[in-house]
Amino acid sequence: MTFLSKSKRLSFGSTLIISAVIYFTLNLVQAWRSQIIDDETYYFMWSQNPAWGYFDHPPMIAWWDTLGFSLFQNTVGLRLFTIFFSALGYFILGHFLVKNKKELILYNLLFFSMVLFQVFGFIATPDAPLLFFSILYLIFLYHFIQKQSYLNTFSLGLGMALVMYSKYHGALLITFSLLPLIPVFYKNAKAYLAILIALVFYSPHLIWQFQHDFISFNYHIIRRNVHSGFDFKNPINYLLSVIYISSPFLFFYLIKAFYKFPKDLFKKSLWFIFWLSIVFFLFTSFKRYIQAQWSLITVIPLFILGFDYLKNKKIFFKPLKILSLITIGLIFLARIYFMIPNPPFKIKYHGWKEFMLETKRKTNGNAVFDRYQLTSLYSFYNYPERAYNIATEENRTSQFQLWNDIEEINGEPYTYFSSQLNATDSLALNSRKKEYYKYKKGTSFFNTASFWFQIEKAQISKSKLKLIGQIWNKSDSPRTLAPENYTLHLILNQEKFSREIQQKVEIPFRKVNLASKHFSDFELEVPVNIQDLMENPIGYLSLAGQNLPGTIRSNYITFVVDEND
């Protein structure tokens, strides 16, 4: 028996459409009344610079934001296409699964009880397009399994590309879904054609990655795992998150569908996605913390197979109905709480707008932040005025460093905001955590991002360290690196890409004049203890301007010290 009957299709199309419209309206109100959060504004900044790729993720969410914000320059505009496609996804999935009125009731009870489905019904992050296009891809996969026509082949290839344009986690969804099909389709030319079509559609993003030295893959695979280490809480938290981000009261009903290995090919794909995702992220959790939304690709097959299993289990319907209504009621109350402007207990949806408007009033010249989230929040809530970002030693690199747009304010007045700043003036953020951000004003911003130190050699002899290499001016204008405007440090760490500074040694240097896109050789002698290099064998140069925090401005270098030196 196939997963879906080809007999009478959904006769409740109008009811499903009405439900989709209600869902769209509910999310529209939610988007209008709920403040934009930090991650959403980061992707909003991407949308102001449309491209085939970005530092952290593929470009789909930026494209959605671009289209929506071009219609309405507010929170609704930013979230508009997320809301539209979430309602469309609800309709498409319902039309795919539901065959009668009873099943429609069950479908609605389950769908509106799924926590992640409701969250990404209005939150504009990459998980929203991943949800929609994963549903679309799985439907295309089902039709390809049933019939390998050229239309279904093209649709499957397109679906793969759209999933990958949404979020890199889509690669797991695609891989796990295809694994059980290999014995059936490994000699099928159209299966390979579908993959080729996907690669053709995805090639602009791959070319972008090639042009940027595969920066996204380097960040996710290497840099994000720099602090890898076992923490017993991580696997426990991950397994619990799979329950509470799906449907906490219904999870143990839904998972019954996965107790037995299915014979149907499509069900096998869903079974593989679910269990292999669990295994993959559980294994990963032994090295790092797993964010709850990463389980989205686990929740989708849980919902589809769970629905297929429960639709024939009359004995479960009454308790399912009660638990679903309780879940839906709690989610609805949470939605209302998100929209309250100033509730007694703050969450991440509260306080940002007011804080950023107050920050604007304190700003003299250009606003500069050390956290990319705050840079983005300021730029959204004070649109069209924007803020700028410097990636300090304590904060990670982001899309802002790829743009290097801070070059625009070189030599201009600025106000710098940071929770780690040594200053007297401060602002309080009235959100879930009472945070204080200090700020200081300057008359002329000195851009450290223009300079890059390429360390070619580190000579260690007779208890001395000498760094030899080149210093580059990466800007389109001549630059002067002068000791009166900049401070240079050698930072010692125990591991590459770590932001845990073990030691900071100031380095004296001479004034250097550099033409545009030009370099000069340098040789720096660093007053550092050789024992410190043995204990902290990784280093890089940090450059700071006008007593502001330093930024990483060199390649990493490993110090190999002869213990007998």
Please supply descriptive tags for the structure shown above.
565 residues, alpha+beta, 5-stranded mixed sheet, 5-stranded antiparallel sheet, 21 helices, 15 strands, globular
Topology of this protein?
Blueprint: H1 13-33, H2 38-47, H3 60-71, H4 75-97, H5 101-111, H6 115-119, H7 127-146, H8 150-166, H9 170-178, H10 182-185, H11 189-211, H12 215-221, H13 233-244, H14 251-254, H15 265-285, H16 296-310, H17 317-339, H18 352-362, E1 366-369, H19 372-381, E2 388-389, H20 399-403, E3 414-418, E4 426-430, E5 434-442, E6 451-461, E7 464-473, E8 479-481, E9 486-493, E10 503-506, E11 512-514, E12 519-526, H21 530-535, E13 538-545, E14 551-552, E15 557-558
Parallel strand pairs: 1-2, 1-3
Antiparallel strand pairs: 3-5, 4-5, 6-7, 7-12, 8-11, 9-10, 9-13, 13-14, 13-15
